[in-house]
Amino acid sequence: MEFKKCARCGCFFVTDGDVCTSCMPKDRLDIFKLKNYFEENNNYSSVQNISISTGISAKNVSRYINNGNFPNISL
Ligand SMILES: [Zn+2]
Fold first, then answer.
1. Is 72 domain-assigned?
2. CA of 40 to the centre of ligand 1 (A)
3. Rounded distance from Cα 29 to ligand 1 centre (Å)
4. For the residues 58-70, what does the mean pLDDT come to?
5. CA of 43 to the centre of ligand 1 (A)
6. How far is ligand 1, taken at its centre, from the CA of residue 42, in Å?
7. Is residue 47 part of a domain?
8. How distant is the alpha carbon of residue 15 from its chain centre?
């Protein structure tokens, strides 16, 4: 078992993911929002831009992309 620091709230937890169980639904919602965003927009230029348009923090946008949630997106 490995303790990890939650990427969203900073609490320590034990699981396979990046975030604790209370933040997991928020991650899922963000990924859902991002997925829709990428489907509707072709002119995303930067993480900052996406963050402003979606309301998802730039840190989290980068994390989802780095985690391979959006294999077709490269910034
Ligand atoms: Zn958390």
1. yes
2. 29
3. 14
4. 95
5. 31
6. 31
7. yes
8. 17
